[in-house]
Specification:
Layout (H helix, E strand, L loop, with lengths): L1 H4 L5 H36 L4 H28 L9 H25 L2 H9 L11 H19 L1 H13 L2 H5 L30
Helix pairs in contact: 2-3, 2-4, 3-4
Length: 204
């Protein structure tokens, strides 16, 4: 798609793909996490897991979160559309990044509801251990639960701290100035061939 659009593989266009990678894999992570929980509950309820039950559970897990994941990725895709309105120097600088990020997120949105469920059915095999038996999960839950309890008991304080953090950005924002693009000193090399005086046209 980049080739068809005439977008070069430069640091900004590749940067758009790099920016998108984190959001691109989110859908797969959420879908697999949901499938893990569904398999865990199904195995507990039925006292075992058959191949038919596994497939049915995985399809249900994908259908449950698929639409929400698809639209959330589309929203992230649309968030970069204002960049396409930039013109002149800033347009040339940032449009390749916006294009590649948009392509990446649009592809991820499609693959999250088509390829990921198929790969889950193919590769999620074996016994699913409960979340509590994983030592990493136990550590993360033990670390997160006290913090969650603390903030849930102090909603006004948390909101006040969040508002203070937003207000603290007012002074730096006032110092930004009105110039969108600073002057660029790129240090480009200029190649200018020279010829001897009186050189004939055929030799030149």
């Amino acid at each position: 798609v980049m080739y068809m659009q005439g977008v070069n593989a430069n640091i900004l266009s590749l940067g758009g793909i790099a920016l998108a990678i984190g959001a691109m894999v989110d859908a797969a992570v959420v879908m697999i996490e949901n499938a893990h929980k569904k398999l865990e509950h199904a195995e507990h309820e039925h006292g075992g897991m058959t191949e038919k039950l596994r497939r049915k559970t995985l399809i249900e897990a994908a259908v449950e979160v698929g639409p929400a994941l698809f639209f959330s990725l589309l929203i992230i895709t649309l968030s970069f559309l204002p960049v396409f309105s930039l013109e002149a120097q800033e347009g040339k600088l940032f449009k390749p990044l916006a294009l590649t990020k948009t392509y990446s997120m649009a592809a991820a949105a499609g693959l999250s509801v088509t390829l990921i469920p198929v790969l889950m059915i193919m590769f999620i095999k074996g016994k699913i251990l409960p979340e509590e038996k994983n030592p990493i999960n136990r550590f993360l839950i033990a670390a997160y639960r006290p913090a969650l309890t603390w903030v849930m008991h102090r909603p006004k304080l948390v909101l006040a701290l969040a508002l203070a953090a937003i207000l603290a950005t007012a002074w730096p924002m006032s110092r930004l100035g009105g110039e969108f693009m600073p002057a660029l000193a790129e240090g480009d090399l200029l190649y200018m061939p020279t010829a001897l005086p009186g050189l004939s046209a055929s030799k030149a």
